[in-house]
Amino acid sequence: xxxxxxxAQTPPTLTDPPPRRDLWPGIAGITGIASGVLMLVGLLVxxxxxxxxxxxxxxxxxxxxxxxxxxxxxxxxxTLVMPAGSLLFLWFLSALARRVGSRSQVVLxxxxxxxxxxxxxxxxxxxxxxxxxxxxxxxxGPGTAxxxxxxxxxxxxxxxxxxxxxxxxxxxxxxxxxxTHAVPAWLxxxxxxxxxxxxxxxFTAWLTVLLMALWTIAAGxxxxxxxxxxE
Length: 231
Prior knowledge:
The chain is mostly helical. Helix content is 74%, strand content 0%. It contains seven helices and no strands. It starts with 23 loop residues before the first helix and ends in a 6-residue tail after the last helix.
């Protein structure tokens, strides 16, 4: 009679817990989208609300615009919205720099310069409206309108300088999309096109700053839907 030998019981197999998804790519993507949206809204509202002071009736239109409290309210609001978008861009910038490898220092430094100059340009363009709205000493008239027109010219010069810094950032990002594929190739090439347009910033800064906001939104979306492996 055969005696059956007891079989050794195999311990139950323990399945590894599912890996936890890092929240950093999602947060970085959200800040990029929020930054681009805030900058885009601030720019579009500011463009629509700014008087055309370059024609022969520019002085009269500037005085009429700055005597309208609703225009001053919008200008004051956009003076807060644009810097908020710029500060959010700094958060997104740190995530973007991590994807470009050896060019991260160039991306970080040029991005910081872009943010600083954008904030300076925004505050310069809106500071008189804020003062006229909140104080009784800044009365709007032909003489003060000349100051407003000068400040708007200085603000546009600030945007020209800001987009020159943005061009450096975008030129540095393009190789990461074309060679290393750390970012999608189309994102690198679209940034390259914006950077080329920035080379004519004295004439195109009003457009390229809008395109930069759109590019930031697109980059934020990419960051959310395509988080890099291992990050």
